Amino acid sequence: MYSMQTAKKGIVLGVYNDKFEENKTLTLTPTSEKFNEQSQGKLLSHLKFIESEIKPGKSFVFWGLHDEYHAVAVTGLGEKNKQIDPLELVDPKKETIRQAAAAGCNALKSVGIKNVEVESLEDAEAAAEGSLLGTWKFQEYKTKKDELCNVKLFSNDELDLDKWKRGIVKANAQNLARKLADTPSNLMTPTIFCDQIKEVLNSPDILIDVHDECWAKQEGMEAFLAVAKGSVEAPKFLELTYSKGGNDAPYVLIGKGVTFDAGGISLKPSASMDHMRADMGGAASVAATLYAVDKLKIPVNLKILIPLVENLPSGNALKPGDVIKAKNGKSICVNNTDAEGRLILADALCYSAKFSPKWVLDIATLTGAMAVAIGSAATGVFTNSDNLYRILQEVSLNTGDRVWRFPLWKHYYNQITKNNAYDLNNIGPSRTGGSCTAAAFLWEFVPEKTEWLHLDMAGVMGPQSDASMPYLGSGMTGRPTRTLIEFIEAQLKC
Where is the Cytosol aminopeptidase domain (predicted)? Predict the structure, then answer.
């Protein structure tokens, strides 16, 4: 028997617990079956003592079963042939694998094992995602950091290896979004965000343009600049270009980049205001999406537009009741300075017309109303395209990071446009339907005859309050980065 002190290497194996065969009540994965044979049946004999306890996402560690792997984490996969529930809109097999891989890796980490090999669990891509997402945590500013696991795939199968590599890229992208979103706002200003993106996206296939305040004035982006007036931090408009799609028109992704949102003059309550360091979660997710698209060499043309500001109260700040103009000339009465995200997105949407895009997708931590409506279960979506929404929902089923559609009705549009003295109000007339009126506002700035999706990610930003995705742990979640990556890739099949 090996002690915790001498153990250096571990392996994560999966087991199903819904199939009952003669002389045993557990079903091993093919890899676990081979491992059991190599251990002269020790694995299965040990499991018989706890067979009723191996539930989905729960792991047990055994010692001394193998000469090379000192510790073995057996992780529950639940039923072998899980069926997709059309009401749940999640592939339960893939999601269970992510949870199981994360649980197995963390079980080994908790007993001092840092070198971990994970079997494919019959879906190497999902296993890779769960392993890396589940063992990563934000600890950038601790003087004594926890050593992260060194995770590898336990397989030489080329197909498994390819899928594992894909999963690693997507998990690394989401972890990048988590890191950017969780960084304190004094260390993630608009300027610092641009500097970090230059380092992370240092690729011959990515062109990075950082536009300043003078450029924004020339572009007529008064709405974008108005939000930045209350802060001493200079606004930046980050434009990223990825051109691997030949002569095709680009897809445009726009991410809200408010690096800290105090609400401006319409000051937010102090409780949990520190979470507003992640009000640039949309910016983080689109930048991380481009990171993955580049690593995976997806042959598309992308434009990433990220307006970056701080929204703070000061003597120079935008005031409730002020009227400003957006890039397209529309006048906006700002009745609430805490509804600032839609102002900077409005100018970015107008700017996107320059590229004659195939479609435009904006994503933002836009409204608290979205978090109230659906919590952390899904990202809210507003769109004028049934087809794009169908694709987005299909890929979200695979990623486990769901989306849910909300209405773009004239009912909401009328609430922000029926004004005598100006074209638009930046909020509706009441507290109800806040996410819907925000989307209706944005629709005014979408290029004419352009397919468009607006994703309100306020509920999925994090930290998690319900542990709906246990492999993400605490802190900002980086959602829905993997869904965006797969959405971009799915365009190749259209």
Answer: 336-343
